[in-house]
Design brief:
Elements lengths: L3 E7 L3 E7 L3 E5 L4 H11 L2 E6 L5 H4 L2 H7 L3 E3 L1 H7 L1 E4 L2 E7 L8 E5 L2 E5 L15 H12 L6 E4 L4 H11 L5 H7 L8 E2 H7 L8 H9 L7 H9 L2
Parallel strand pairs: 3-4, 4-5, 9-10
Antiparallel strand pairs: 1-2, 2-3, 6-7, 7-8, 8-9, 10-11
Helix pairs in contact: 6-7
Length: 233
């Protein structure tokens, strides 16, 4: 049986996840501690692993209590990078090292689900706190090489704000209004194929994106220049 994904909201915008098998589960960025513990109890699951997509405190804030309340083992994002892949209840979860937002950022892939943390949200990429814009660009390109059916599951819900950004860059893009209409805060995930229709950072070759940057007198010669320019806005 493939792993099931359960999404939880906590704080104002944060998103936490449980990867659930038949007997065991793994928490990813598990800040929604009460809800995660209740789900484990309701479904009769043992928490095996506590994982993080990166080391920022708004994503690691639930780790200590989850470890205290269960027999789970913690793996840091550095541990995940070194392992390359893990198993949850016998099912494979592959690890992609995606530096850019932070140097230790990772994505976790199981089936069609890709847990992207703050590397890629629904609608836009994260901020480049590492300072390595070219590395961040390569990480996004790596994600963009995945099949269109891949489901992006990010670390925050910034959909409304980021659709405003997308509309500023491409005001004539008809897909943005449809994306807004389908927004449901109870479930923040979307296919990579649909992200490619609206996210300017996945549309760097589009003439409308290039023209927008030129009008702003921002560097636009190479895709990585466009990526850097969009990040500066």
């Amino acid at each position: 049986m493939p792993l099931r994904l359960v999404q939880f909201r906590y704080g104002r915008t944060n998103l936490a996840y449980l990867l659930c098998g038949e007997r065991e589960a793994a928490a990813v960025d598990g800040g929604a501690v009460p809800e995660i513990l209740q789900t484990l109890e309701d479904e009769g699951l043992e928490l095996a692993l506590v994982l993080n997509t990166h080391s920022h405190s708004d994503h690691t804030c639930g780790n200590e209590r989850l470890l205290e309340e269960t027999d789970a083992r913690r793996m840091s994002s550095v541990d995940l990078v070194q392992s390359g892949s893990i198993e949850v209840d016998g099912q494979a979860v592959s690890i992609m090292h995606t530096p850019g937002h932070t140097r230790d950022s990772v994505c976790l892939k199981t089936g069609d689900f890709l847990l992207t943390g703050d590397t890629l949200f629904c609608g836009k990429v994260g901020r480049c706190f590492s300072g390595d814009v070219e590395g961040f660009y390569r990480s996004i390109r790596r994600i963009d090489s995945l099949p269109s059916r891949t489901i992006i599951c990010g670390g925050h819900d910034y959909v409304e704000e980021y659709m405003d950004f997308a509309a500023m860059v491409e005001p004539e893009n008809p897909h943005i209004d449809d994306y807004r209409k389908d927004y449901d805060p109870r479930g923040i995930m979307e296919t990579l194929g649909r992200e490619r229709e609206v996210d300017p950072f996945l549309r760097l070759e589009e003439p409308s994106v290039i023209e927008f940057l030129k009008r702003r007198r921002l560097p636009a010669r190479r895709p990585v220049d466009r990526f850097r320019s969009l990040l500066s806005l």
